[in-house]
Amino acid sequence: MGDRKSNIVETRQLEMIYRMGKIGVHALRGVDLVVHEGEFVAIMGPSGCGKSTLLHIIGGLLTPTRGQVFVDGHELTAMSDAERTDLRRRKIGFVFQRFNLFPTLTVEGNLRLAERIYSNGGRDEVGDPAREREILRLLRLEDKINHKPTELSGGEQQRVAIARAVINRPAILLADEPTGNLDSENAEIVLRMMKDLNEHFGQTIIMITHNPEAASMANRILKMRDGRIIS
User: Fold this and answer.
1) Could you read off the pLDDT of 140-198 as tens digits, one per residue?
2) What backbone torsions phi and psi does residue 34 show, to the nearest 5 degrees?
């Protein structure tokens, strides 16, 4: 696989075929991808091109029909379901178009829950208060720590979702249309803060988006069509 210290993600000849009765629909057709540690990569392409399928396979949420996936030096595709779940918990942060915050918990409660999930439910884990403060400062959420999601704007909720995703230092942050539910002003704020996470914390990010302005925040833009990376 080459230098696994610098290659945080690698896919080899990934294929994904969805079965619809007797018909096989090819979502991915032999995708080879390398993402280096500390990169911010955007993946663009029309609906149905396979970009969400690719992201979900890298995140261990789907198992490919054929091919290999390596995340931070671990071969995801050779693992059992339990091993894949454990690696996902320790190595991967997710940000989706829907914020998926727990509505009854405050911002701090949502972050604490993420820390507990990372520690596999251990009650003695207190997380890293200094990192939590720094992330909240970077995402301009310090004064929202005791607010519940219903008391926050859409942009603020998405920033909390990002903070939750990176609080435990995941090797990689996977973002699936993270600005899809935001107006242009909040979208720009969220994207600039993701860029700051990449630059200040060295956070590796793979983001899929339809938006060229969102993609322009990345260090590298990949384009997909018909299940293949074309550029």
Assistant:
1) 888 999 999 999 999 999 999 999 999 888 999 999 999 988 998 889 999 999 999 99
2) -130, 130
Which residue in this structure is represented by tokens 């990569």?
41
Nearest C-alpha neighbor of 107 from the set 173, 38, 35, 157: 157
Taking the domains of the chain in order of start, what are their residue ranges?
Answer: 39-61+91-229
Is domain 39-61+91-229 given the CATH code 3.30.280.10 in the classification? no
| pTM of the shown model | 0.90
